[in-house]
Protein: YkgJ family cysteine cluster protein
Organism: Halorussus gelatinilyticus
Amino acid sequence: MDVNCEGCAGCCIDWRAVAPAASDHERRGPREPLDDAYNLVPLTRDDARAFLDAGLADALTPRLWRDESGVEIDGVSVSAIDGKPAFFLGLRKPPKPVAPFDTEPAWLPTCVFLDPTTLQCRIHDDETYPEECADYPGHNLKLDQETECERVEDAFGGTRLADDDPPEDLPGFLLGPQAVGQKVFVFPDPERLSGVVGRLADGESTAGDRALFVAAAVAAAPGTTAVNRERFESALSTAREADSWAGRAIADWEARAGGERPAAEDGESAAGDRSPAADPRLAEAVEVARGAPETPGWDAE
């Protein structure tokens, strides 16, 4: 795809707060997500396994939907398949100080893997780079749906989508029944989500809550609602142990955005200022110092 991403990253940032007009296209369907994330990237089962193996399970989060015809947990009726709660698995979006589209830096929900300084993906060339990200915006164009590139053009001008013809070698879609176990997952034990769904609905999910859904996605069987129990418990144990640079950075970003002093690690004083001022250069202390891969910048050859 021929797209102009420099200074944009519109598909990686919830930029509605700096947009000249309101937009809520993700809430137009029949089911309302429990979370308030924008542009959540739905991961495949293979994506989930790659993140788990890389120790990055703490960078993932589930999406469930309100559905009166679904299954009720914690007083919330959520979408279900065969009585089992259905969900996507996506990438977490903590607040980061970013300045897309030549705007002033502001705290905006931003993909955990986006470098705030260059607005480039830190895992673009990595094995964990999600399939949906690699294919975007090809699927939208194939389905004749508006792309985030076009929304950015409408809001801020310029040309972001230079070619609106979908690639001929675009991988197969995962739509309808074929998506089950591959991109749309089910949680095998609804009763195990007691308390979890309530926290998700309140935006207060814990690391343990999120690990449950990572495990269910990893243990899913393509095309079915079956979940391998042994693999589920093994994946859950691994997910619970995740303590990556990404997970630690999320906690730090959330503290800084709230004007709090970041928690010290390993007996050391927290790096950087406690100021809530939106400065993309904070990424050096928050992400790079913790081991985040650096990005080349737009002048790199």
Q: What stands out?
A: The first strand starts at residue 32 and ends at 33. Residues 267-275 have pLDDT under 50 and may be disordered. The chain has nine helices and nine strands. The beta strands are 32-33, 60-63, 65-73, 76-78, 80-81, 84-91, 95-98, 106-109, 185-186.
